[in-house]
Amino acid sequence: MDRTRNRLLACLGPMDLALLAHQWRRTTLDHGAVLQEQDAPVEHVYFPLSGAVSLLAVMRGGEGVETAIVGREGAVGLFADFGPWRACDRAVVQAPGIADVVSLPQLRSAANQSEALRRTLLRYKETVSAQAQQAAACNALHSVEERTARWLLQLSDRIEHNELPVTQDTLSQMLGVRRTTVTLVAQKLQHDGLIRYRRGRIIITDRAALQALACECYATSRRRTEAPFEEADLLRTSA
Amino acid sequence: MAVYHFNLRDGGAGIADTEGTELPSIDAAKAHATEVARELMRRKEPTKRTWRLDVIDGDGTPMFELPFAKVDPTLDHLAPDLRELVERLSESKRSLSETIFSSESLVLGIRAVDARRKGKPYIAARLGRRVDSLKRALGG
Asked: Which residues of B20-90 form beta strands (DSSP E)?
């Protein structure tokens, strides 16, 4: 699979990619694998070519809520610049896939040599923090049905598929609500014809209705995630 | 430990909790029901406080009912008599809405049976549930 399947890497010119040419390692993203642990030092940056990774804020008791989700439009393990480079979230593979990995020191040294690389990575970092802000507001202000719809749509956007490898247990963890609550909400969505679920899978059957149910946060986050790529396209076509 | 099912009465066809949850005691089940009710109605209290959880054990024996209005935190500022009034109204509203829903389902069911007899097309499902059986429409 071509490395530029990752949309951040696709934004880079040949010169920038050449800075990292021999540093890559390809890895599989296995369902449930932890790519980085909260508060632990970060050594690698993952650029997914497929699949999706959830970023979770984890409490001492072990409970965590998702703050952002990363697919092939982004990367896991990026830092603006200043150390210490410790993860502020746990990164868990939500949907299996493939990623290209580079060590953080190597990426930093390449970024120090290229303004374009630095700008692309920082621009993405901003959309992740925007996602986290939106998630915080959403968790506080919106109903569990709206949030369920938003989350399913966001994951589906990342993996570009309507069939999601998600159990109700996962859904309950990501949304920070009880399993019974998720069971009742998911059954209601199924009765209304929006989704179908069977063991370990949720299939979106009526995307338009699910979008109508989701809170505004879905559209807001999507717009913000897409904006840097649209700007990059504009730059490319005007150049 | 025992299994409890938290069935939702939402003023329509309702939703059965097919999964069930294992809990140590009836008090734990009551606490769980309270949390689930609050999670389900959060930020939509004005419309969802009419809902109710009917809790049954693994054999289907009714254990207790929890009207959402009883644990609606947005009603906490009301004087006790006023709150009781809101709780009673919520219960009546849900019950009325369920009666309307089941009457409509009954009519659809009768039409479906009649249409099938004549070999004509008919509405086979409503909100994901089949309506072409009169027994089902009658709540059987």
From this structure: 21-23, 52-57, 62-67
